[in-house]
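Usage

Read records sequentially. Each one opens with the input sequence:
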Amino acid sequence: MFAAGLLLVFTSGSAWAGELPRFSDFRYEGRSQEVAKPGAGQYRNPILSGYYPDPSVLRVGDDYYLALSSFVNFPGLPIFHSKDLVNWTQIANALDRPTQVDFGGLNLSRGIYAPALSYHDGLFYLITTCVECRGNFIITAKNPAGPWSDPIWLPFEGIDPSIYWEGDRAYIINNRAPNEPPRYDGHRAIWIQEYDWRAGKMVGDSTQLVNGGVDITKKPVWIEGPHIFRKDGYYYLTAAEGGTSVNHSQVVLRSRDLKGPYVPYVGNPILTQRNLSANRANPVTSAGHAQLVQTQNGDWWATFLAVRPYEGDFYNIGRETFLLPVTWKDGWPIILPKGQAIPFVGDAPKLPRGKPPAVPISGDFSYVDSFDGDRLAMSWIGVRTPKQPLYRLDKGELILSSGARLGDQAGVPGFIGRRQQHHVAAMSTTVRFVPETEGDRAGLAAIQSDESYLFFGITRLGGKPVVALFNRDKGTETLLASAPLAARGPVTLAIRQDGGTMAFDYTAGGRKVSLKRGIDARFLSTKTAGGFTGTIVGPYAWVQ
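and closes with the structure output:
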């Protein structure tokens, strides 16, 4: 069956000649480069470390929920729950059945963009875009922990839709092309149209609310991620502007009428880091794509994405989720005054303290997954929608089926991984595998895209089993190092990253060996690889 993880039924046996590889004890240990020690009544940013971008936050009663982008990773659309906006536990992957959405043939930065959560009449709504895979859709659930429905596909172009509810009527707001020929690259617009939630279809005319951005004469780019809420007689429209990189920002406009005209705040943007010194210590950059939420006590907070480079604009772990309080000035919300750096520590929301997750997702932490359950934790994800299950769990071992080669965009690799959540991190596992055919391989893969990845593990080269390290940096795959394996037996593989460099060690027959040190890690960065994801690390197998 397919669920939070994938369960596979096939005949298993020992992991020697002719058998599929077996993995045990995936270990992770990570720490942040910045020093951040929250005191009593404080919290630490980011609240979700690693590749958790485009957060959509929702409060229902005294419960809070987050939904995040997942692109072509499957299962996808992770859903988190919290009582205090600080301690978050994953409760679902809203896309956990291959029949819901097909990511076949898509590169790793297509697929699911910028979901938005809402709630009405006892039902949770999740609206999002599947880029290059049929477009915009809605799924629903009575319980945010699932199950979530199959998609209702929507007939409009663009990305980043959200739903605004007014009484018993629903309106969809999203990024579309402007109602004129684009004046420049990145010229987009925000539109609104009514949605008949009972019939599951769009009704009435579409209305353009924002053309280009706050001031089209300045050629603003990529107005996106819009949300509307109402307060004190005004409709507030917040959106990201500037593109999801160093020029990213959040802006706000308001109107007395839902369909405008919307007047921008003269103090825009209400969140950005683009004007701060690039040479500051431990920078947080690229902040934007925010959503505001009001607590049951009347306070306002915002979740948003930002990144923590290890140098320059290089970061491997993707865009992360941050939290800041919102202040109101003269009827306008402000997430962070201009010129202020995003803090790593702040005073926590005035809410009853929530229960920390069993496996931490923020700050410095470590964990071991011993593969001793009946399915993998929800944080394990693969690449693209599998046509058949990829693995099974057997008494503390992960038995991994072979799939496509790494880099084959047309296929689904035999890979299941977890997000790398720190730039100072160590990841390891033990593998039992005997490669019979030249090129067979099993070990750890670190994947940023189909053209930017590494493999570290057991393979067969020149007719002999070896431990080898390969990488691909947008070109062809390159062998960086190898060493012969003298005897059969388990091999423990360890990848260590310290900022911009990586090291690779293995232990076989009781002997620890350093295979390669000082590898430049920047080929796994977003700046080098491109795209919108973060590095995923985990077991991989390719057996002919």
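Summary fields computed downstream for this record:
- The longest strand covers residues 201-211.
- The mean pLDDT is 95.
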